[in-house]
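Input/output pair, single chain:
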Amino acid sequence: MKRIVFFCDGTWNRLDAGRPTHAVRLAQAVTPSAVDGRTQVVFYQQGVGTGRGSNMVARLTDRFLGGAFGWGLDDNIIDAYRHLVFCYEPGDEIFIFGFSRGAYTARSLAGLIRSAGIPPRDRIARINEAIAQYRARGPDTHPDSKASKRFRADFAPITATSQQDFDWRLAQGMDDTRLLTLAYLGVWDTVGALGLPSFLGVLAKLINHKYTFHDAALSRSVRSARHAVAIDERRRLYPPTLWDNLDTLNDGATDPEPPYRQLWFPGNHGIVGGSGTVPQLSAGTADWIAEGARMAGLEFDRVLLRQLVGPADSAAPLPDTLKKAGLFSLGGLLLRDRSGPARPSEVSINAADRVRAVSGYRPASLSRVLAAILAK
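Output:
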């Protein structure tokens, strides 16, 4: 048995970037084998809009369409899923990480696995059927419907994706099935900027239909998950896509650290994802996501990870990046504070420490919890 680890990078982000993201840093720090003897296999995927293509026109088109509208996301999801089919053996553990639109890819990959399972290699030509099953909406395509169970039993006979699915298969006499769970899902600032901006109205709705996010709710097929969200991102084109069912998933958890967490951190989108200009703030989100993965069983070279990430400092100066935002601001028309956390428990220690240490740090997105933070 081995650990299969996916890192899905954000828009325009790649391995050789001047300021690599946390997807790159954590991928570099995963050890090839763990102390328990398990092999750890890393799959890194560069983000959309990174200039892929066989000629200059194709590369420029990819950079523009992938970067501006997120085109290419489906290809990234299919590419990661195909890699998993070739690599997976029953009993393997799966870890998935992603930043920005790469977080969309990561969460969609987890949702696709829940919906379709993992087929044997001789069914890999049927991946488009799995994608269609995942994308479809309706009572017959819900993962727990009888139709979905029958689809998975035929498409992925070895992997049941829920206890209900497993029990159903046993009742059908399929006793060679294994219950599949994802060990960990760690994402940085999942954005809803997929397709055309919503202010383009009907045109945006027509184009964006295929990119509608399927996984605002996190599935129990993921054993543990963490989402680091940016407090100081104000661009309207970068709204966060939050998990909305963590209270339900954590209900009954007895550990001091619940398995499913979503916390707000200081910094904008790039800082939280690791590619920003304040590495001391970025370090906090890398440490937190990596900590969750370690608790789930993934092993990092801690010395190398510390070298790659650097020291954390919650009080580090935070420049006003929007002064040079140009088109993103349009005199403030494209700016809006995020709604932010509703409860103090959703605020990271890093953010709370910054509020108390930096007197001028009072972002509007923390307005609902600011008094409670300062009272402690």
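The chain has a mean pLDDT of 87. The longest helix spans residues 279-295.
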